[in-house]
Amino acid sequence: MKTSSDAQVMSIESCAAKAVDAERVAAVCSRMPAETDLVGTADIFGLLADPGRLRLLLALLEGELCVCDLAVVSGLSESSTSHALRLLRAHRVVSVRRAGRMAYYRLADAHVRMLLDLAVAHTEHTQAVHPERDLSGS
After folding, report:
1. Residues 69-78: tens digit of each pLDDT
2. Which residues are CB-neighbours of 116 under 8 A, at least 6 positions away?
3. What is the C-alpha radius of gyration for the chain, rounded to an integer number of angstroms?
4. What is the pLDDT of residue 127?
């Protein structure tokens, strides 16, 4: 059942006149990344969409940590932590340094740090509307 609010949103989201600004559309299309780059970027955002992996990455903002420390910080088991780190490493989000039997992880580069910093800053300075997620407990 559609409410009047739904109808209002529908009318806002659709064009009143079906006219395409061909020049602007062409300019936007010319700047669009290649399909493989779009898929890769979507994969990165997918990796960041998991709270456990995100906790691992945010912990690495503080610098290099071993798997044991990352497991404690993230609240994940060591096995889950290792699995998450393998995924993140495969996508070049983290890198590893081995010292004997120990593996120390860090963010792969400054781009990852900037992405995390911006995402956290955005979340802290905006209030998303998620009616399905009432975190207030009321």
Report:
1. 999 999 999 9
2. 57, 58, 61, 107
3. 21
4. 76
pTM for the full predicted model: 0.74
Give the helix/strand (H/E) hosting 67: helix 67-74
Residue that is written with structure tokens 């300019």 in the block: 27
Instruction: State residue 9's pLDDT score.
Output: 47
Q: Which of these, 79, 89, 129, lies nearest to 109 by C-alpha position?
A: 89
Domains along the sequence of the chain with CATH: 55-125 (1.10.10.10)
How many whole angstroms separate alpha carbon 138 and alpha carbon 131?
12
C-alpha to C-alpha distances, 89 to 11, 15, 85, 94, nearest whole angstrom: 44, 43, 6, 5
